[in-house]
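Lab notebook: predicted structure, single chain.

Context: the supervisor wants predicted structures on file for every construct in the current expression panel, including those that have not yet been purified. This is the next one on the list. No modifications to the sequence; it matches the entry in the shared construct table.
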Amino acid sequence: MRHIRMRLGSALMAFVLVMSVSMTSVFAASPSKTCTLPDYTGVTAEHNAYWKIKNKKNLNILVIGDSISNNAGASSAKNGFQNVFARNLKSTYGIKKVNVKNVSYSGNTTYCGIVNAFMASTNGVEYDIALLTFCANDKKSIFGRDFEQLIRVVQTRYPNIVIIPVLEAWNKNYKDSRIKKIIKLSKHYNLAYADAIKVFNNSGCKRSKLIKKDGYHATNLGHKLYAKALMNVVEAQIEAQNFTPKEMPDMMYSVPTYTTLACYGKGKATKKGCAYTFKINKSGYYGVHYTTLAKSRTVFTVYLDGKKIFTKSYKSDVSHNNIGFVPITFNKISPKSKIKIVFNTSRAARKFKGLMVGY
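Prediction complete. Output recorded below exactly as produced.
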């Protein structure tokens, strides 16, 4: 799987997902932080964000994505497409204030986006629009179910929100199965997606003027076209007078979901050398919060009750977020179970942040 990369000044954090089958029990240790979604009870407002835009109401926008929405390729954050989009909304519709909260990370997969959505859900802000920008870093076989989980997490927390998935324009067409799944899920959830692929293809500009040499990240002009794709959605929805929030339908993919995310900082573990051991008896979807270090190979191995589950190894010339999605089945979680994470260097061990579990 190829990874979107972004040059950063310091080593950043990432997540590796480890899955477990059962969704019951509790951690032996208490979590450092827990985020629990409310029960979904349906829409609670008469009008959605498209009505607010038409009527010049202030907006809160949540951006969840990978390096493309983390301003990669842009000369500065203000030239990132989400900020260009916010300025376009203000200038076109006379809105005074458009607040943008960006929780995107370079190298993100959709799983990490789910984690970030949980984290954002506790900040007390009621978001009107959510922009979801994923595809390139995700494993094709599990992308659909994870993207659906992300949609449901966001809409459960913000039942009146307008969700706009973005088709990443490094794709020249719609053949990639992940793009097809975004389109399919958008139709199932009554979401209008931003078709940046079409906007790029119809721009009349050379590809080299829109996409960086890495083949993924947009130039400043490319970011403007992403913003244009978003404005196309807004204009079409206002013209169609789609001003009523949509109810969340039943799931399209038959997979387990979770409504609580518990975070366990490394202080909850016993440390010995480069190893951290957590005493657990919770089954769920596990994430290892680690750091990819520049110009060195970061390796860690996960053990369950002394049995090696998997090893993650990554090397990069620059520091950036990276998601290595590894679905693992923990068949035997007991009250005495232990998860041990062993890093290859003391520096990598020091940068470890902790474990998280969704259930």
